[in-house]
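Hi W.,

Here's what went into the run:
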Amino acid sequence: MFCREHVAQLREREKGFQLKGARIAAVSLGDTEYARIFRADTGITFPLLIDTDRVAYRAIDLGVGSIFHLIRADNRDARSRAKAAGHSQGKLGKNPFQLGGSFIFGPGNVDIYTHANETFGDNPPMADLLAALP
Amino acid sequence: MELTLSAKLSEIVLPDSEGKQVCLGSLWASTPCVVAFLRHYG
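Here's what came out:
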């Protein structure tokens, strides 16, 4: 549900990012068929790339959680927040403990903003992402 | 000098949901790009 919540927030703020000259893309672990379903379900129009072998995730050392993350207070709070916003748990992939992250990269391979998630629901506020752009 | 995260990703090529091959570096070659790494489709 955290992915759907995060993607919905990105979609809602896409215009704001565009006004600051930025585009959006997402990377996920699922297969092509489910990527199409996910795009249709979430209504996103930005690119959704598929990394079933976690090549990109490993290249930047994104973390891997554990079953113990499920009982962390911050994770419980994030789950409650996502549920209250109307998001439900969708299909789990073959690497359900892989953690995500949000980044803004710029021309010349400049890292403008980096946020590697520390647990499942640890997505950054949209305001932080927007504020990172001049 | 250590590579930036974007430099580490820039040469990686992944398919999009339509099967088109996309070089990650092309996403931010000319403008900034917000890149969200999702865990799965949940």
